[in-house]
C-alpha cells in the first residue's frame, strides 16, 4: 500500500473511532449536563428522562433499564412526543433493572428520588426496589413509592413509612402531571409535591410484619401504575428545598 493510501486510511479510521466514542461514551454525560444544572448533577445515581423513547440511564453510570412488557413511550408534560413513558396496570406493564447492585445500601444513608407522574386511576405504584410485601401496610420490597386509593403519596423504606397528604386531599388529581420528591436520611422521611413539603416524619416504625431482605430485589418502574412517568432521578444524597424548587421548575428533558 502506498504512503498516501495509508495516510487516507488512517484518517478515515480515526474519524470513525472519534464519532463512535462520542456516540457511546460522551452522549449520556452531554444529556445530563443539558438537562440538569451543575448542583443538581451532584449525587445522581441514575437518571431516566426517557428522551426520544430511550430507557437508558443518562447519568453516565450505565444503569440502563429493560422493557419486557408493552409499556411504551408517550408525550411528556409539555406535549413533547416520545419523551415520557406510559404504563397500563391491566397489562402488567413496567420497566425494570435486574439485580440493581447500584442501589445497595442506599436505604442506610441519605437517599432521594425525584420524578414526574400522571395517574389515571386511584391507587397506583410508581417505583420500588423489589416487589414482595414489606412489613409496612402497602409497602413492597426494600422500599417503594406509590399512591394510595385517594392519591395520597406513600413512601416506605427500611421498615418505616410516611404518607403525604396533598394540600387539597378532596381532589383526586387524576390525569394531571405532578412533581414528586421523597427523601430519607436515617429514617427521617419527607415528601414534597410540586415543590412543597407536605409530610415530614422522623423514625416512626411500621410495627410488626415480615421484614424485607436488604440489597435484594429488582428495580421496578411503573409497576401497578396506569398513567405516565418522566424524568426519574435517584440520588445518594438529601435534596434541599432549593434543589427541589429548581427541579420542579425545570423543563422536561427532551432533545
UniProtKB/TrEMBL annotation:
The keyword Ligase does not apply. It holds the Pfam family Laminin_G_3. It comes from the Bacteria. GO terms for molecular function: hydrolase activity, hydrolyzing O-glycosyl compounds. SUPFAM superfamilies: Concanavalin A-like lectins/glucanases. InterPro entries: ConA-like_dom_sf (IPR013320), LamG-like (IPR006558). Keywords: Disulfide bond, Signal. PROSITE patterns: PROKAR_LIPOPROTEIN. GO terms for biological process: carbohydrate metabolic process. Residues 109-242 form the LamG-like jellyroll fold domain. This is LamG domain-containing protein.
Amino acid at each position: 500500500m502506498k504512503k498516501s493510501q495509508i495516510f487516507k486510511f488512517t484518517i478515515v479510521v480515526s474519524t470513525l473511532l472519534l464519532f463512535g466514542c462520542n456516540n457511546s461514551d460522551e452522549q449520556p454525560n452531554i444529556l445530563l449536563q443539558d438537562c440538569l444544572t451543575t448542583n443538581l448533577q451532584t449525587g445522581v445515581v441514575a437518571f431516566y428522562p426517557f428522551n426520544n423513547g430511550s430507557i437508558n440511564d443518562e447519568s453516565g453510570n450505565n444503569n440502563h433499564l429493560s422493557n419486557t412488557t408493552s409499556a411504551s413511550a408517550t408525550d411528556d408534560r409539555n406535549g413533547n412526543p416520545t419523551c415520557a413513558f406510559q404504563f397500563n396496570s391491566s397489562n402488567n406493564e413496567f420497566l425494570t433493572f435486574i439485580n440493581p447492585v447500584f442501589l445497595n445500601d442506599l436505604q442506610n444513608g441519605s437517599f432521594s428520588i425525584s420524578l414526574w407522574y400522571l395517574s389515571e386511576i386511584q391507587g397506583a405504584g410508581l417505583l420500588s426496589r423489589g416487589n414482595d410485601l414489606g412489613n409496612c401496610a402497602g409497602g413492597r420490597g426494600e422500599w417503594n413509592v406509590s399512591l394510595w386509593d385517594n392519591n395520597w403519596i406513600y413512601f416506605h423504606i427500611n421498615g418505616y413509612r410516611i404518607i403525604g397528604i396533598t394540600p387539597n386531599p378532596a381532589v383526586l388529581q387524576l390525569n394531571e402531571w405532578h412533581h414528586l420528591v421523597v427523601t430519607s436520611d436515617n429514617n427521617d422521611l419527607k415528601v414534597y409535591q410540586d415543590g412543597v413539603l407536605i409530610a415530614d416524619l422522623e423514625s416512626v416504625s411500621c410495627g410488626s410484619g415480615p421484614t424485607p431482605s436488604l440489597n435484594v430485589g429488582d428495580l421496578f418502574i411503573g409497576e401497578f401504575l396506569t398513567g405516565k412517568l418522566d424524568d426519574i432521578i435517584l440520588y445518594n444524597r438529601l435534596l434541599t428545598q432549593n434543589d427541589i424548587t429548581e427541579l420542579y421548575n425545570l423543563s422536561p428533558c427532551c432533545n
